[in-house]
Each structure stands twice: as structure tokens, then as C-alpha cells.
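Quick check before the chapter quiz. The format below is the same one you will see on the exam, so make sure you can read both the input and the output lines.
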Amino acid sequence: MSLEQTNQFRQFEFSGNAKEWFGIWIVNLLLSIVTVGVYSAWAKVRTKKYFYNNTSVEGRNFDYHATGGQILKGRLIVIAALVVFQITITVLPIAGLILVLALLVGYPWLLTRAMMFNARQSSFSNVRFNFVGTYGRAAMVYLVYPILCLLTLYTTAPILDRTIKRFSINNHKLGLAGFDMDAPISAFYKAAGLALLWIVVVFVAAIFFFGFSFGALANMDALVEDDPSVFIAMMAAFYAVFFAGIIPAGFIYQALTRNAIYNGTTVEGGHKLRSNIGAGKLLWIALSNMVVVVCTLGLMLPWAQVRMTQYLADHTGVELGGSLDDFIGTQHEATTALGDAYSDIEGIDVGLPI
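Here is the expected output.
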């Protein structure tokens, strides 16, 4: 199923191919091994540049501008901090506890710096992105709200997820044009409900058809003594049912919330993002990719990455609120008038997974 085509609709296009990417990937891998991981910083840059450069809208592509040195510098800082922390907690446990608390308090700051770095090192049609989130808001979203979610026994987890997504998207800018995500909370609860329903159906089916018993797991010691093979078979069945329920549920939630997020996001100027990925198709691509990668001992990973990226691009687009040329020209002039607003002042990557 393709996105609805209109005169103002532009689909994302990915022009990369597995053969070309394999050549880059294998060099990245070998050099990272030879240099004991040092080259992995440059490998990350080459990876992002390849996928960014090959993703475009109306002939205008994305780009990534960070250097391997910036990435390596950030990683060295993280490693040094971990070494200091380990030594401190070993020699002075009380001081180590204080460091843990300091890290907890400082996490929102590190996260906003990571988002700022990645945004400012990325561009679309030579117009840089930016991130303007504040520490105070990040502390609420990543420290306070998760605690409140825990107190509600995770019944508000969809609200927390939506809040985190809104914090990230609404604080991003392309040039000076802001993003606004206003996906309905009902979409997140619907996605969570369908994912949970899938898990329940799988576990109920397992109990009904295979006589799966959680009570038996409480008697593990007895099972091992009586017949170890029975225990092994039961554990294998348990994990099979577990993954049959949890993994598809994750893709159901991911697909539905991604569509809601993109379809609820606008860019200043009247431009609207669009997405219509299918949970079943996404699951099939992910699982078949995993099987192929495992069976080829990882050599088909580039093919799997290109295949997934191609699918996501084919089902993502933007409904333009006006001329893309005019929009890009306006943003380019505005940022140029401000000077180099995206210099290397935030020139390190703190290495957080964002």
C-alpha cells in the first residue's frame, strides 16, 4: 500500500544499494578490528553519511557533517569518566554513590547535548538542523515523568512515550523552521492495546494448545532431578512463546506509533509528514532479515540494512504546504544572516543512544 498521491505530495527516496554499501561496511568492519575499535568512530561517520546522502526528497538529499575525531573525542571522554567512576566507587564507596546521583542529575543535560550535536551535524539540502530543548524540560521528561509512570504501574506508559517523542520532535528545527508533533494520545493507547492483545492471544493459545504451565516453572528443581530433558524442552517452549508474543508486539507498537507520529507532525510553513508502514510487513522484513543475517554469519547485514531503509523510505513522505525551493531558500538565507549558527561549538558526541 502506497501513500496517497497528491500534487503537493513528495515521497522520500532511498538510492543506496546493498553491493555499494557492502564495500563501505566491510572496510569499516576490518579497519575497526585492526585498530581495536578506534576506527569505529570514523566508521560511524561513513555509515551515517552514506544513508543520509542516499535519502532525498524531490532531489534534495540529507547529509551528515560530524568528523571521526569529534566522535572519538566524545567516546574517550565517556571511557575516562567510566574509569574514574569505577576507581572512585572501589576506593571510596560513599563518593561513588555521590557520583551516581550526580550522573542521574546530569543525564538530562548529557541527553540534550547529544541531541544538539546530532541535529547540528545533520542537514537537508545544505540547511542544518538544530535542537533547542532545555535541561529543565529534559529533567521532567526523562527523570520525573518515568517515576510517575512507575507509580501508576505503567498504565501511563503510552503517555510517557508520547511525551518523550514530543520533547524530541518539537525542539528540533530545520534552519529556523520548527517542528510540531501533535499525535493524539489515543493512537498510542491503541497501539499499546493491540500489542498487549497480541501477547495475551499468544500466551493463551500456548496454554490451550500445548498445555503450557507457568506453575511447572516453579518446580524447576524437581524437573531437573526427574528428567533434565523435560526441563530443557519446557524452557525452549517458554522462550519460543515468549519471543512469538513479545517481538511481534514490539513491531505492532512501533509501526502504529510511527504512523501516528509522522502523520501528526508538521514543519513550519505548512509542510506535513506522512507515514503508512504496516506492522505485518515491518515484522516480516525484520524477522527475515535476522534469519538471513544469522545464516550468513553477518555477511548479509548490509543487505538487511538497505532493505529495511528502503521499505521505510517507500512508506514515508511529506505533503508540501508550498514550494520546497522557496522554503529551503528562505531557511538558507535566514541561517546565513545569523552567521554560522551551527559551528562546532557543540563539537563532541557524548555517545548516548538517541
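If your answer matched, good. The chain has a mean pLDDT of 87.
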